[in-house]
Write a structure and sequence with these properties.
20% strand; 210 residues; 7-stranded mixed beta sheet; alpha/beta; 9 helices
Length: 210
């Protein structure tokens, strides 16, 4: 029977928040390419979110995901993003995937660049890639409890199943941690460290920030 490992993406497999990086990349890349349609839309959304603060993060994210981004932008972003890979976690991913483990990458990052990242940098992978998507005009934000629901809906888990190994940096993955046999906590902040040590000490491995 296959074992199951789930990897978070942001600040776990890559050492940054990819969505923030994506917003900055779109703004800069569209400006450099004189693509004023995308530049103006990104600028307006950032202004409303960061300056006026009159739109939610979920609305901001959904509207960015609905933009028609040129494929070469996403390809270039994927290449840049790989430069921030966490080498130890990447090695763990490759080791587990070469054995008897089924692998799911579960992230709140948008599905479009998340999928391309793995197809480009792991061309023969068999990972299940689950990111955030806009479905029927609504944001399926792959975050907190929704991560577990999406793993079930995609057939990776059945309700009541356990995860053999979870790799994460965040307390946002607490719902997954509660059903994991082992947790590898990657460079946690102090609040996350306290929560996981208090709740999951017997099955916890911590990889410190380098």
């Amino acid at each position: 029977m296959d074992k199951k490992a789930v990897f978070d993406f942001d600040k776990t497999l890559v050492q940054l928040n990819s969505f923030r990086y994506w917003v900055a990349f779109l703004w800069k890349e569209s400006l450099l390419n004189l693509d004023f349609k995308i530049f103006s839309k990104v600028s307006i959304l950032v202004f409303h979110r960061k300056i006026l603060k009159n739109i939610s993060h979920q609305f901001f994210k959904k509207e960015l995901m609905l933009l028609k981004i040129p494929s070469d932008y996403t390809l270039k972003f994927s290449k840049k993003l790989f430069q921030s890979i966490h080498l130890e976690i990447n090695n763990r991913l490759l080791q587990l995937s070469s054995g008897e483990y089924k692998i799911a990458i579960s992230s709140a990052a948008p599905q479009n660049y998340l999928s391309l990242f793995f197809h480009q940098n792991y061309p023969n992978h068999r990972f299940l890639i689950i990111g955030s998507e806009v479905e029927n005009g609504l944001l399926n934000d792959n975050f907190k409890n929704q991560k577990l629901e999406n793993l079930i809906n995609k057939g990776f888990l059945k309700r009541g199943d356990e995860i053999d190994v979870l790799f994460t940096d965040s307390e946002d993955d607490y719902p997954l941690a509660t059903i994991s046999d082992k947790i590898v906590l990657v460079a946690p902040n102090e609040q996350t460290r306290k929560i996981y040590v208090s709740e999951f000490k017997s099955k916890l491995e911590i990889i410190e920030k380098k």
